[in-house]
Fold this protein.
Amino acid sequence: MQKILEEQLQQALKSLQSDGGWPVFEGVKIEVTTPKSSEFGDYTTNIAMALVKQVGKSPMEIAEMIKETILKSGDDKNNTDIEKIEVVRPGYINFYLSQNFLQSRVKEILSQGEQYGQGEEKKEKVMVEYSQPNTHKEFHIGHLRNVFIGSSIVNVLRKSGYQTLSANYFGDTGTHIAKCLWGLQKFHSQDNLDAIENKAEFLGKVYTEASQAIAEQPEYEEDFKAVQRRFDEGDPELVALWEKTKQWSLDEFNRIYTMFGVSFDVLFYESVEERDGRSLLPELLEKGIVEKSDGAIIANLEAYNLGVLVLMRRDGGILYGLKDIPLAKKKFEEFGIDRSIYVIDIRQMLYLKQLFKILELYGFTRNMQHIEYDFVSLKGGESMSSRKGNIIQARVLIEEVTQKVSKQFPEAPNVSMIALGAIRFAMLKYSSTSKIEFDMDESVRLDGSTGPYAQYAYARIASILAKAQEQGIPVDDLQKVGLKISESKELDLIRELMQFPKLVAEIAEDYQVHKLPHYALRVADRFHSFYAECRVIDVEQPELTQSRLALVRATQIVLAETLRLIGVSAPDRM
């Protein structure tokens, strides 16, 4: 409807130019938006105020002339979709949709089902790289935020019609690996590693133990460096230990991914990209993109105000940049993508700019975008560090939230579904660039801006539809029902449901997935307000009952799809 109104406004201006003597406008963009309050209509435009200087009249006069021109343009279907057009100070033109049009949106949702809001198929192919955990370290709540943002972006892009590949890039080599291997040999050589119950947690503790030992006792530094050199040179014993323990981490990662319903189309590994980076290094040196400096190899980007990026240490160790350069090329050349999205924490903003600049200097200019996110801590907690050993493990967070849900919803048939949804929702409702203090008690409340609140709305809808079926009222073919919707709470709910397709398309452009949880809350609020004032099942009014059941079912479709996009399950009971 926004596009239709923008076209009508464009036609009105052309008519006023030809018949009313108005000038040809330059640099004027017609925009129709949704007002913050429904008292100002369903759509509004400030175009009249933008034309004051060129037309030479007051905004109110201009707005009235545009309004009258639209009303005189005919009585075709588009005009019957609008119930009223009004002009309000200082010159806004507000449009109010007709009841018939709003009722037709319910029919549209019912007929399209889960395809409602699905965008047309796009030619552009996109890869979203997210998660990127380091093996031999524990999966913590900061990793969860990355996973939730990345998987939601993937879902939205697919919903919008883009060919989308989800990719993960495992940090399975580097200094942290060498420290863990050194710690295993130094402090746990006599342990029966196969008998350890929680192997991933054990590796995280070994890494912390090794990091602290090296920091506190400098004499360990050379011992550790020797192990690192042996590992880099392919020592068979260390490589075998690395492969064994790496799988422990990967098994834990996959367990968490499965728990949250996340999967990947493509898997990358730093150990593979490191080899490709070494092979690419001579060419980078020859082209002058990188240079030798005190035994190390660097990219001097100070001319671009991007500082210096070290790609290889003096001891020959390869750093992130030299691995990410060939990986960036591989994504486009081997997978045929048109856009590459990196979901990486905010600390890496400079690094990503450096990487993109190096690729540009290399002659590789493609569409690469960084979606950053900020830190996560528990309420009242300190910032996390694997080296300090004070991280909040994802596994522990899940267990504790699940326990709280068990107490909050003792009769829920699937406590895990509610708990996992509560965690996802609580992290996703904040803008990715906002810091989060995760409050476990707040996340499971039924009366707040939470996942359980949105899930409860869905469960209530499912209960209403089930009750109707129990009473012999059909709910499987509601799109054929003649709708009788006129109450303000009914119409407000429809107006909210109408926003879904536009919201999906918007997020596919700006990646601000936090808009989805807030939309789910608005739909839940509108539904609860409707349900409080409008009796749905009334045996004495079968037509009204069928009409309201149609609206309830439409709400269920939109709410379920909204929750699906952010990876939150929609339970039938709570």
Summary: The mean pLDDT is 93.
